[in-house]
Amino acid sequence: MFAEVVVDIKSSNTDRVYTYRIPEGMDIKVGMRVSVPFNNRFIEGYVISTTDNASYSVDKIKDIHRILDSYSIFDEKMIELAKWMKEYYKCYFSEALQTIMPVGIKQGEKKVKVVKINIDEIPFQLSKRAPKQYEILQYLKNRSPIRLSELVKVLNIDYGVIRSLQNKGYIEIYEEEVLRFSVKDIEKTKPLLLTEEQQKAVEEVKSSILTGTFDKYLLFGVTGSGKTEVYLQLIDEAIKIGKSAIVLVPEISLTPQTIERFVSRFGNRVAVIHSGLSPGERFDEWRKVKNGLVDVVVGVRNAVFAPFNNLGLIIIDEEHETTYKQSDLRPKYNAKEVAEKRCEIEKAVLVMASATPSLETYYKANKGEYKLIRLTKRINVSMPQIEVVNMSEELASGNTSIFSRKLFSYIKENLKRKEQTILFLNRRGYSSFVSCRDCGYVPKCPNCDISLTYHFEDKKLVCHYCGYEETMKETCPKCGSKRIRYLGIGTERVENDIKKFFPNARVLRMDVDTTRKKGSHEKIFYDFRNGKADILIGTQMISKGFDIPNVTLVGVILADITLNLPDFRSSERTFQLLTQVAGRAGRGEKPGRVVIQTYEDDHYSIVTAKQQNYVKFYNEEIKYREIFRYPPFSHLMNIVISGEEEEEVKNTAANTYLTCQKLINKLQNKSYNKILGPAPAPISKINNRYRWQVILKSEDRNILTEIAEEIQKMKYPKDIRIAVDIDPLNIM
Ligand code: ADP
Ligand code: ZN
Ligand code: ZN
Asked: For the chain, what percentages of helix, strand and coil (3-state, to nearest 5) are there?
């Protein structure tokens, strides 16, 4: 017997299938991870098929060295999915397989050392005498039992300390196959009695689930229309006939509240996958699915690969979110497309849902590619009232504060009524740049082509791209002036000003800076929901998934930040963000109010957001897309060329452009094709690497993939990196 094996080497030369002999007695199954000899060493490989006849001269074929796990990682359907990804995203086969594979599998499922705390009260005197031991015990208090390796990594400790704790009997270490259930016991909820609209939605999708038909739906429902309850009941239907379901949610809306809603319905038959999990924890969740211990996975992007073998349904919540696209690593896949393909392979049902569908999705729904289901009404409550304030007019009438008079008075009223307020601003830090009033000097990052953001709390200037920081100086380094101007407000500034104007208000802030520590996100959320604060200030982290009845006011401090990004999707992003944040107001019995502050109050994104009219926004936006032939009227491909030598980058970009042109001519395609560039990328330097880009537009996606393949096969100067992104969601 022979096995066809994909080897773990990332190069175009080795991106093919190799034949190995299966030694007598070795129980090889398709989908297994194996070790194989390759150029005088052993490397990892993946068995994608077995055969009796080798297509290759038999005496040259080498033996598989050994099997790495006791079971198959991929079933046939997943291998088919990987093949599709390889072709669709033009990545290596091994990359596609490794994307599907759980991170953490390399540690294996061997027994691991587990630490368990043995005492109920942590001796306080330890905090002085042995602070590290104290820290470890504190950490273990809520997390025990935990893997030793994880403990060591998280707290950065050496084994000596562990041994002392063990000798004192404070902790116990034993070997175990760990499979933690991250899910806490919470009260079960019963299915709600559905509204008429919800009922219709459930009935329609249910029929596809029951017949096992590959149907694709767009559930277009306004914020608060009860989409989640629809998901829950659909999953229930799938489970009843022995099938399982995957629910994809964007990272930022994987809030404790979202998880709670699934767990309270399905108990520990739910696995949760989020990016805060360690590789080991992720592997645990993966095995729960593999071993049939759960029926539902709720998770971010890569949960789409959950290894169910009887998938009935994939739900994509907030389908317009950009986090479904993997933009930083290869393959640059979009979980929405993968989900669609997976449903096709498994004959499962796809439900994409949003209050603000992406233009591409709504366009396809209009054309009948997706079945459109609408939820037009909020459950029991009315939509919030939205007001727009023009900030130039505020300035003209003498108000220089970052709060308009209207928003200010509403905040004041809310504080008096003991109702809660959310203030949204999509930028963190204190001010996005500082400049000298006298000479105009603006401090920039020495590694990136970007101005430094001022962080008030630690008096630092920080680069949001590479993390570079420096202490903020009191005088201008160029002319010595003390007159520094703070421009471009961020969430820290909002917090600062709120505290100045409302010293008695209890304020919380949620952004990247306040949620670095594990669990801090949850803490801020629960504190706010439990009424421990009056005002929550935050970036887009707070725009979704928050369902807090006492929030009756939402203020958008400046809508223009997203509107002015150099990206053809900036209007769409702005409309989506505004609609989503506005949707946080008035979800309880008390009516909600929303104030949007902007300098561009006549922009259609803002006007239609105020009217809460998605279709009107869509009709306006789709016109521009058609005129300029942007998606959905074309596919884009972004090629970024980067390197440390500016000249070399520039020359390579010019060559890349020419190659693209030649290829397009050669392919002699009748479709619309256009090459933009070569030009410096909007952020022209990151981490000391210069960046140029070439953007291709084509009606025919196959043109782009063919070019992608050619471009990636070519030889480049040593330091040059080429990153190709087909259907990018970010072209900065
Ligand atoms: P969406 O996801 O569409 O924004 P949610 O699913 O968060 O909306 O629903 C909004 C609120 O309405 C939630 O508090 C939810 O519990 C409640 N809800 C949903 N469906 C029903 C129903 N059929 N009867 C009563 N309350 C419901
Ligand atoms: Zn100066
Ligand atoms: Zn930088």
From this structure: 35, 25, 40
